[in-house]
Amino acid sequence: MGIRGFLRRLSGRERAAAEARPEPEQPGPLASLELSEPLDALAADFFFPFAFAIEGLHIRVRPVALAAGPEAFPREPVPVGPWFFWKADTQAGRLGGYWSLPPAAPPRDAAAAASWSRTAAAVAGAAAARLKAKLSATPSLAPTAFSAGPCPAPALAGRSAFLVDFRYAARGVFRRGCAVSAPGYPLVLARALGAETAGLEADPIGALAAASRALLAGGTEAAWGERVFRFAAPSGGREYLPLYDCFNLLSDADLRLVVQNRLLAKAPGPALGALFAYRTRADGDPEGAEKVVPAQSLDRSRLDPLLPEAVFREGRLDPGNAASDVDDFLRRNDAAYEDLFRAARGGSLALSARGSELVRGLYVALVYAARRRAFDELVRSGRPGTDLAGMPERVFRRAVDSSGARGLAAAAYGSPETLATVSKWCSRAKREELARELERIEASLAAGIADLDGLAEERLALAARAEALLEEERREAAAGGGRRAGPGRSAEPRPGAGGHQRGGDTRAGDARPGAGGGGRRAGRRGPAGER
Q1: Is the pLDDT reported for residue 331 higher than 70?
Q2: Which of 79, 64, 61, 80 lies closest to 32, judged by CA?
């Protein structure tokens, strides 16, 4: 057999082996999923709302696990109640489910059990009102009828169902809960939210993930917009998502990076505790007793394993390290968000794409936007143009001559009048550089990366420079006047002094008979810079 025949036979064997090899089986639908990435289940917000309040008491929720199929609801033991139901008639059909809200620990006695039942009923009632509002905001899910209330534990063992396990926080204490629905509800929800659902008819967990992606398609505000807290600060009321609640939205991997790579280094010692709690006076009375407001939704079961033992040994999270007041607390959180944003953007913090997007969205909306409003107000005020309008032109021009293009661009941004005045005193090369700096400012503002505090400082520097030059002229004028009229001197040149009197200040028009060389010095610049 020649070499060609051998190769043909070998090739035929390889083809036959390839044809005989079975195709790998496609993975089937997941029966359960532990959520290391909370945003993968963002649409579970339609099973039990993630953010609501009861008479000022904030509730914040984080999903922790999903399960689907006949094994979703455990046969033994039956989850402890109290139990609640909800149901709604919608264009998509009849929807509904159950909630279990057990106490954090077994009640001590019947009275404690009854007390918790009342508390759980209040939580469920507020959750039901919020869920009804969420359904109403989605046209195909808007209820024509809605009801909710307490119920006995449902007989779901062994029946096909969809289960969402979650943790919810109230006053800084986390408890477990679960929501149960029919297995078809995630698919109905995904379609109502405009998600791609091909192939997901028998995959409830996949359908919920698709619905979650559809919610996030418009940006990460869908994840945090309803979670913000209202802070009543001396500097003014502010809607804000503290860093501790941002933790509830980050994946396990991103949270580890944020805590270990940035916070521990950037918030050393007591500063770490000041990120999570602050001091205030009871009832806002300046003379009232001081109290510490703790983190409302900090899940220590997630945070603590990421911290070195020294943090606990040194008591860095103790109440005594709380921020001095709410403004101090918010400033520290602002600084932390800015650090995370710049580190992620600069590549020194390797967050996931979703984590980076979340951090950027929070920084731009909550920190940068407030500073941008202050900067825009400065631009609208007309400063520094209004400050410079009353300056002598020679002083204004000297200030421009001694300023770089970057500072001039900051001063002229948003002010055509100031830009026109500044430009006429610049060389062609400097005008071109000024135009490039203005483009840089515009681009950085649009991207949310401008150093607004620095930009505001640079903007006002031109007027400050002009004022300094004017003050310098005033001092020189005052010093020159003192030399002329001081002890033993005369303010006027003596007759016959000629050009030998160095102490005199002979101006144009002052040359009188006998003044000698005064006329030859008439063109010299005086101490005030005038001719």
Answers
A1: yes
A2: 64
CA pair distance 525, 508, nearest whole angstrom = 10
CB 166 within 8 Å of CB 178: yes
Sign of CA dihedral 423, 425, 427, 433: negative
Question: pTM of the entire structure?
Answer: 0.76
- Report the C-alpha gap between 273 and 312 in whole angstroms: 11
- The token pair at 402 is 């001694």
Alpha-carbon span 188 to 43, nearest angstrom: 12
Instruction: Output 207 or 7, whichever has higher pLDDT.
Output: 207
281 sits in which H/E element: strand 278-281
Locus of tokens 């609208």:
380
CA distance 103 to 117: 9
- Residue 279's H or E segment, with its range, is strand 278-281
**DSSP percent split of the chain into helix, strand, coil, nearest 5:** 50, 15, 35
Taking the mean position of all CA atoms in its chain, how far away is CA 146? 36
Q: Is 427 exposed, middle or buried (0-12, 13-18, 19+ CB in 10 A)?
A: exposed
Output b/e per residue, 273-289; b: 16+ Cβ within 10 A.
Answer: bbbbbbbbeeeeeeeee
Letter string b/e over residues 228-267, b meaning 16 or more CB atoms within 10 A of that residue's CB: bbebebeeeebebbbbbbbbbbbbeebbebbbebbbbebb
Q: Across all residues in the chain, what is the average pLDDT?
A: 85
**Range in 2-16, 154-168, 469-483 with the lowest mean pLDDT:** 2-16
Helices within 181-289 (DSSP H only): 185-192, 204-216, 221-224, 243-246, 252-257, 264-266
- Our CA dihedral for 183, 184, 185, 188, rounded to 10 degrees, sits at 160
Output b/e per residue, 307-340; b: 16+ Cβ within 10 A.
beeebeeeebbeeebbbebbbebbebbbebbebb
Burial of 469 (0-12, 13-18, 19+ CB in 10 A): buried
Predicted local confidence at residue 363, as pLDDT? 94
Greatest extent of the chain over all pairs of C-alpha atoms, in Å: 132
Give residue 501's pLDDT.
Answer: 38
User: 236-240 and 278-281 as β-strands: parallel, antiparallel, unpaired?
Assistant: unpaired
Tokens at 138, concatenated: 């989605």
170 within 8 A of 58, measured Cβ to Cβ: yes
How far apart (Å, rounded) are the C-alpha atoms in residues 489 and 165?
Answer: 94
Q: What's the confidence (pLDDT) of residue 71? A: 85
Q: At what angle do helices 405-412 and 452-485 cross, to 10 degrees?
A: 110
Residue 216 tokens read as 């996030």
pLDDT tens for 238-285 read 999 999 999 999 999 999 999 999 999 999 989 999 999 999 987 656
Radius of gyration of the chain (CA): 36
Question: pLDDT tens, 60-115?
Answer: 999 999 999 988 877 566 667 899 999 999 999 999 999 999 998 888 999 999 99
